[in-house]
Amino acid sequence: MAESPVPVLLVTGFLGAGKTTVVNHILAHAEGRRIAAVVNDFGAINIDAELISGATDGVVSLANGCICCTLEGDLLRTLASLLRRKPRPEAILIETSGVADPADIVRNLMDPVILREAPLETVLCVVDAAAPPRAMEDPLLRAQLRMADVVALSKTDLTDAAGRARVHAAVAALRPAATVVEAPQGQVPLALVLPEDPSRPPTPRDPGRRRPHADRFETLSWTAEAPLSLPRLQAAIGRLAPRLARAKGVFEAVEQPGHPFLFQLTGGRATLVPMRQGGGPPATGLPRARIVFIAEIGRLSSAEIGAALDGCVAAP
């Protein structure tokens, strides 16, 4: 008996939009379905894969590249491997990096062999509702929106009614066919993005002609094997922030040993939250401090990052 096709949910969105928060909500509310998650981070250190919790059929990490270009072969091999699992997943969720153009990924997923076994069901684009108005003019974000079936407006609690109305209007003007849902804390209903009947035929899609790929962003990583000083780290990030598009990392602070923190910077907003309660040892085989920085090419160097952050490491 032929096995049922496994629907694919593609989650896209610009740097720092809140994709991982949406993914975590979907996986935590999977209603018993086996969902395999494929997480693509642009940096050599896949912080996003560390933050995915509740995946019911495992997390596969694709790091140090973008699945719309350099890692597209890895993505197709990963899908083939997932489809060979026993038991087979009931759905596959792919979280792209924030620098990915989903049209190129959709084009790869339209391969007849993949389409037959793992049809693309939904393209979900996460948009930061609290971002400044000029953010909606970014060509990469607009390319992500043009492919969306569903648009999830994140961080709606950080903006007012006028700001939310402005984002709704901008999305409707660019992608009128999309279903728009406000998603504070990543709250996207599972039924909106994954079908009850996976045997139904996939929606025809036209990703358009392939466009030349031009690198715009680069990723730089920094690690340390000791806890960091919080005041010194805050000062260092403040100096680097004007040249950053995005930063995220995990570290231990000398002020609270054994308690890892998650640091994120997006849209000029920095947040710092505990990773888990109760402390415990650092993740096996990973540096105690690991931070990924994303900037437009030429705006920042590894030497400048090292000069800013090396002084944050606590003395032995």
From TrEMBL:
<dbReference type="Pfam" id="PF07683">
    <property type="entry name" value="CobW_C"/>
</dbReference>
<protein>
    <submittedName>
        <fullName>GTP-binding protein</fullName>
    </submittedName>
</protein>
<dbReference type="GO" id="GO:0000166">
    <property type="term" value="F:nucleotide binding"/>
</dbReference>
<dbReference type="InterPro" id="IPR036627">
    <property type="entry name" value="CobW-likC_sf"/>
</dbReference>
<keyword id="KW-0378">Hydrolase</keyword>
<dbReference type="InterPro" id="IPR051316">
    <property type="entry name" value="Zinc-reg_GTPase_activator"/>
</dbReference>
<dbReference type="GO" id="GO:0005737">
    <property type="term" value="C:cytoplasm"/>
</dbReference>
<dbReference type="Pfam" id="PF02492">
    <property type="entry name" value="cobW"/>
</dbReference>
<feature type="region of interest" description="Disordered">
    <location>
        <begin position="194"/>
        <end position="213"/>
    </location>
</feature>
<comment type="function">
    <text>Zinc chaperone that directly transfers zinc cofactor to target proteins, thereby activating them. Zinc is transferred from the CXCC motif in the GTPase domain to the zinc binding site in target proteins in a process requiring GTP hydrolysis.</text>
</comment>
<dbReference type="GO" id="GO:0016787">
    <property type="term" value="F:hydrolase activity"/>
</dbReference>
<comment type="similarity">
    <text>Belongs to the SIMIBI class G3E GTPase family. ZNG1 subfamily.</text>
</comment>
<dbReference type="InterPro" id="IPR003495">
    <property type="entry name" value="CobW/HypB/UreG_nucleotide-bd"/>
</dbReference>
<dbReference type="InterPro" id="IPR027417">
    <property type="entry name" value="P-loop_NTPase"/>
</dbReference>
<keyword id="KW-0143">Chaperone</keyword>
<keyword id="KW-0547">Nucleotide-binding</keyword>
<dbReference type="InterPro" id="IPR011629">
    <property type="entry name" value="CobW-like_C"/>
</dbReference>
<feature type="domain" description="CobW C-terminal">
    <location>
        <begin position="217"/>
        <end position="313"/>
    </location>
</feature>
